[in-house]
Amino acid sequence: MLETAVYARLQDLASGRVFAGVAPLETPTPRLSYAVVSEPFGFVLGGADGSSTPSIQVDIWAASRLEALQVGTEVIAALGAETEAFCVVGLTRLADETDEATGLERVAYEFTLAR
Q1: Which long-range contacts link 19-26 to residues 24+ away (Cβ below 8 Å)?
Q2: What pLDDT does residue 21 have?
Q3: Is 48:11 a contact under the CB 8 Å cutoff?
Q4: Tally of domains in the chain
Q5: Is residue 2 classed as helix, strand or coil in its secondary structure?
Q6: Domain that holds residue 59
Q7: Which of 89, 7, 94 is nearest to 40 (CA)?
Q8: Rounded to whole angstroms, what are the CA distances from 9 to 82, 98, 99, 112?
């Protein structure tokens, strides 16, 4: 399962504060969450060819943008290693965000994978 492979690569980052979907609000920072945002499957004339190019979004929340960027560098390194499960074929940094209620800073990336 893709989510299991992603978690295996991220689980040691942010002091282990890694969540599928949404992190609980009370979780200390830095923390990160990830989600599959799309997964196109490959087809040929004979049907499905077994390939897919999923996109994974990773959100990093921290007390400062610099701290979030530092964790982001670790995320890029962790997901960037090619393995049998997947390899990264594209990376987009998404818009940064400041949560007005908490003052936390978010840096987000979308990884396009090949499997």
Answers
A1: 23/61, 25/102
A2: 95
A3: no
A4: 1
A5: helix
A6: 2-114
A7: 89
A8: 11, 26, 27, 15
Q: Which two tokens stand for residue 26?
A: 């009370």
pLDDT by residue (tens digit) across 63-112?
Answer: 999 999 999 999 999 999 888 899 999 999 999 999 999 999 999 999 99
- The rounded distance, in Å, linking the Cα atoms of 32 and 59 is 5
- Can you tell me the distance from the alpha carbon of 47 to that of 45, in angstroms, rounded to the nearest whole number? 6
Tokens for 87, please give them.
């390899």
The domain that contains 67 carries what CATH number? 3.30.2000.10
Helix (H, G, I), strand (E, B) or coil at 20: strand
pTM for the whole structure: 0.92
